[in-house]
TrEMBL record:
Residues 16-47 form the ChsH2 rubredoxin-like zinc ribbon domain. This is Zn-ribbon domain-containing OB-fold protein. InterPro entries: ChsH2_Znr, NA-bd_OB-fold, Thioester_dehydratase-like. Pfam families: zf-ChsH2 (PF12172). The lineage of its organism: Bacteria, Pseudomonadati, Pseudomonadota, Alphaproteobacteria, Hyphomicrobiales. It comes from Chelativorans composti. It comes from the Bacteria. Transmembrane segments: none annotated.
């Protein structure tokens, strides 16, 4: 499975939205929590009673590091080396993504670490086969 058209429906919907610059999750009608990226059921309570929801794209970068090894997939080779990190979305989910606006160098990462959690905003990067979620740190 390499293209948006070949993905299962929840994943396909996520990538179609991401290609348009939107973050798509599912919201559980039973517990009210978000599952991101979206799946067919709630990751919190297991309910299948979920509906698609757009997320703000606003997040807090909690931790960042860089890759010094070869990229994990050919779609990332042109970006390497890059910074990636753990982010908490305004709506609650925590996940990993590429971080833009910071050099993949120890001194830059140390400065970022000393700043503590920083705000970040979602951006979409287009690779040869799929859009990729990234976040740009503020200032």
């Amino acid at each position: 499975m390499n293209t948006i058209q070949e993905q299962p429906s929840a994943i396909r919907s996520y990538y179609e939205a991401l290609a348009k610059g939107k973050l798509l999750a599912v919201t559980c009608k039973a517990c009210g929590k978000h599952t991101f990226p979206p799946t067919g059921c709630c990751e919190h309570c297991g309910s299948w009673d979920v509906e698609e929801a757009d997320l703000s794209g606003e997040a807090t970068l909690l931790f960042a590091t860089h890759n010094l090894t070869p990229a994990c997939h050919p779609r990332f080779e042109s970006m390497a080396p890059y910074v990636y990190g753990h982010l908490k979305l305004k709506e609650g989910p925590i996940f990993q993504a590429i971080i833009l606006g910071i050099e993949p160098k120890p001194a830059a990462l140390r400065e970022l670490f000393e700043r503590g959690p920083v705000p970040a905003k979602a951006e979409t990067l287009q690779t040869d086969d799929l859009p990729v979620l990234a976040f740009r740190i503020a200032g």
